[in-house]
Write a structure and sequence with these properties.
By secondary structure, this protein is mainly beta. It is built from 1 helix and 11 strands; from the N terminus they run E-E-E-E-E-E-E-H-E-E-E-E. It has one helix at residues 68-74; strands spanning 3-5, 8-10, 15-16, 21-28, 32-40, 52-53, 60-67, 87-94, 100-102, 105-107, 112-114. The strands form 3 sheets. The protein has a 4-stranded mixed β-sheet, with no helix packed on it. The longest helix is centred in the middle third of the chain and has 7 residues, at 68-74. The radius of gyration is 14 Å and the shape is globular. 23% of the residues are buried. The mean pLDDT is 96.
Length: 118
Amino acid sequence: MGRLSTHVLDTTSGRPAAGVVIELHRLAEGDRWQLVRRTETNADGRTDAPLLSASDFSIGTYMLSFHIGDYFRRQAVPTAEPPFLDIVPLRFTISEPDGHYHVPLLATPWSYATYRGS
């Protein structure tokens, strides 16, 4: 069975980013984005459960939206106002119905990186 997971690392502090709101959307017919899940990272910077698993997991185009601007405001990290990075969208495709897709975000107020992990 396939699954989708994520985590968020605050590379400014070198720690997991707790309390980051994450939205998962799936591209539906007519080029509309459909909200699949809205969650928040825990103290370890991860979600308490996979974002997709079992029957929810399917081939398609998805977008993770990380509300990183709100997180850095709460951390009192000096940023521009409005912030340079507010909501970071990551658009990706799932093509392996039995694959494990781990899509993390490593972020500062000024930059981010991602990759397909395991």
